[in-house]
Structures are given as C-alpha cells and as structure tokens.
Automatic annotation (TrEMBL):
InterPro entries given in the database record: Fatty_acid_hydroxylase, Sterol_Desaturase_Related
Protein name in UniProt: Fatty acid hydroxylase domain-containing protein
Domain Fatty acid hydroxylase: 101-236
Membrane-spanning parts: 12-32, 87-107, 157-182
Main location: membrane
Similarity annotation: Belongs to the sterol desaturase family.
Localization per Swiss-Prot or TrEMBL: Membrane
Domain of life: Eukaryota
Coiled coil residues, start to end: none
Species assigned in the record: Cinchona calisaya
GO CC aspect terms: membrane
Keyword vocabulary terms for this entry: Membrane, Transmembrane, Transmembrane helix
Length: 257
C-alpha cells in the first residue's frame, strides 16, 4: 500500500513524481541562504564563468522533462504488469532492492559510455554536450540542463534501459527514478554541506562531478550518477582534494603526481 494508491496510477506517478521531486529539491537549494562558507565556487565565479542565464536553463530543463514524461508514460503503459484482476503484481522488498541496485549499475554503465563518447567525438561535444558545460560552475536547477538530443540519449534512454533490464514495476520505478533525480541534483548543487549523506555514502558526489565541470577536468570523472566504477576501471578517474579557501568555502583541486 502506498499513499497514492486509489488516486493516481503507478505509471502516472513514475512519470510525474521525478519531475515534481526535481523542482522541489533543486528549488530547496536555490532558496537556501548564500552559505558562502560551503560553496565550491564563489558567487563571482558563478556569474563570470557560466555562459547561460538562469531563464534559459529553466526552459531547457522543462523541455527535457517534457520528452522524458512522454517516453516514460509510453514505456510504463506498454510494460504494465497486471494479473487477470487488473492488480499490479509487486515483488517482495528484497527483490525490489536487488532490482534497484541492478538499475543503478545499468544506468551508470549507459551514462558513462555515452557521456564519455560525447566528450571524445568533437562534433557531438561542440554541437550537443557543450550545452551542459556552459554551466562551468554547476548549480542545482541546472542538473538536467542539456541539449535535447543529449537529454534523450543520456538520461531518457538510460532510464528506460535501466527500467527494462532490472525488470522493476512502475511502483518500484517511482522510488528509483526519484532517488536518481535527487542524486543528480545534489551532484550539481555546488555546495559541500556538512552531514550530506550523499557525500558520506557516495564517492561520486558534488566535488567529484565539479572536477568534471571545470575546464581542466573534462577528460576525467565521467561517471554519473551513482558510482565511479567505470572511471576507475578505464583510467578516467582523477583524485582530488578539498581545500578550504581563506575567504570562505571550498575548492575541489586535482591531485597531481
């Protein structure tokens, strides 16, 4: 039993809940006070380095979410798993946990190789992926700011493949996709907040992805959104350390040999 049962279908929740969670969580970061002593970049750096205004970022995210919602609704409707009475067949909690872990690994694998190829292919980087890197200094609302083609290939297809291979139901997918959205937003938030559980559990975190967004780091740390497995296996992981700036805040700096 879940709180939306009887009001909204699992398929509709799987389609729209991640969008609502995105704007709630990203909006939470956007509405926080300055918190300069926890920022990975100063506000001056954000204003000077970023190449796209906030309004364009919001429009880009909304466009990607429109495509995602359309694909998700079609996918859920085509794969709905019901018995003869029309009731969703939901597996045990243990099975659902295994499915979510599988989905995480599949999503990481898909996104790593597509993401890396978009950096290595000069045409795709210049005309597609560079749009995301206009946010040299990432912030939460811009987590899904991508070229529409990248949004389709990297995020939408990556989510669909994770869903299909893991075999999860639409109800389990609500949990997985909302979690993936929260993790992605957190990775782009630009803040190193004390007690952030993602920084404690995941090595692939805000600072890890910040290194990737800096100009000197675009050949490293492709992994997203969960684990750095493929970076470490294939030699694209770069170590870094957090350094406290005298004026306040932190800097994620590469460790050079």
């Amino acid at each position: 039993m879940v709180f939306w049962e009887g009001y909204v279908s699992d398929e509709s929740m799987g389609t729209f809940a991640p969008i609502v969670v995105y704007w709630l969580y990203a909006g939470f970061y956007q509405l926080l006070p300055p918190l300069d002593k926890y920022r990975l970049h100063t506000r001056t750096e954000e204003d000077e380095k970023n190449l796209v205004p906030l309004g364009s970022v919001i429009k880009g995210v909304l466009l990607q979410q429109l495509v995602q919602a359309t694909v998700a609704e079609l996918l859920f409707r085509l794969t709905s798993n019901m018995n003869s009475s029309g009731i969703v067949v939901q597996p045990s909690i243990v099975v659902q946990i295994v499915q979510i872990i599988i989905a995480m690994l599949v999503m990481d694998t898909w996104q790593y190789f597509v993401h890396r190829y978009m950096h290595q292919n000069k045409f795709l980087y210049r005309h597609v992926h560079s749009q995301h890197h206009r946010l040299v200094v990432p912030y939460a609302i811009g987590a899904l700011y991508n070229h529409p083609l990248e949004g389709l290939l990297l995020d939408t297809f990556g989510g669909a493949i994770s869903f299909l291979i893991s075999g999860m139901t639409a109800r389990t997918a609500v949990i997985f996709f909302c979690f993936a959205v929260v993790k992605t937003v957190d990775d782009h938030c630009g803040l190193w907040l004390p007690g952030n559980i993602f920084h404690i559990i995941f090595q692939n975190n805000t600072a890890y992805h910040d290194i990737h967004h800096q100009l000197q780091g675009t050949k490293f740390n492709y992994s997203q959104p969960f684990f750095p497995i493929w970076d470490k296996l294939l030699g694209t992981y770069v170590p870094y350390r957090l350094i406290k700036r005298p004026e306040g805040g932190f800097e994620a700096r590469l460790i050079k040999d």
